[in-house]
Amino acid sequence: MLKQSPSLDLVFQALADPTRRAMVERMTKGPASVSDLARPFAMTLAAVMQHLKVLEESGLVRTQKEGRVRTCTIEPDVLRTAEDWIADRRTSWETKLDRLGALLDES
Amino acid sequence: MLKQSPSLDLVFQALADPTRRAMVERMTKGPASVSDLARPFAMTLAAVMQHLKVLEESGLVRTQKEGRVRTCTIEPDVLRTAEDWIADRRTSWETKLDRLGALLDES
User: Fold this and answer.
1) What is the pLDDT at residue B3?
2) B4 contact A CB<8A
3) Cβ pairs bridging A and B (under 8 Å)
4) What pLDDT is attached to residue B86?
5) Which residue pairs, CB below 8 angstroms and at least 24 apart, start in B90-94?
6) In this model, does residue B13 exceed pLDDT 90?
7) Kind plus residue range of the DSSP H or E element containing A76
8) Helix (H, G, I), strand (E, B) or coil at A17
9) Which of A71, A105, B45, B56 has the fewest CB neighbours in a 10 Å radius?
């Protein structure tokens, strides 16, 4: 039976877009306002907000509004979850390969 | 200017689906035939082939046909590329946080 991981679906989907990855990259340098995030991109504020919404719904980004400024902060634990999923599969395969190598050496 | 990373787009897109992640998981246990991959899923072979195509186009999976059997193998380097992208951003943010903490301790 297939184990559902809806949050991983949303996290990988959020990371599958170069603009959203660039926004994540900017936020790793410190909390950013929506204007900060929008600055490098030749796109409307509405388009930037749409990307931000995808990031927020995935859990990768938390936003907080104080007065007229919305501040966006990265959630490292969610990055970690995605990183761990990939790392676990990669090491599982590498362990398998090592075992196959050892079997070949023995034979 | 936005740096395009089309391969990361395809890799994260490929990982954003639970069926494809389950197929990757299966392949970390060793090379698999298309029937092996299809077995746990209540879906048509055509649907499985479509998922496999997305995985292959992302570079995450390599397939090789010998006679009537197509064997599917994981590409750990491509998993590694996605893992490294996430890890680099996470550690960049954690370093930033440590610096902020140090500044607060000094003040």
Assistant:
1) 47
2) yes
3) 107
4) 97
5) B90/A28, B90/A76, B90/A79, B90/A80, B90/A83, B92/A28, B92/A29, B93/A27, B93/A28, B93/A74, B93/A76, B93/A79, B94/A76
6) yes
7) helix A76-106
8) coil
9) A105
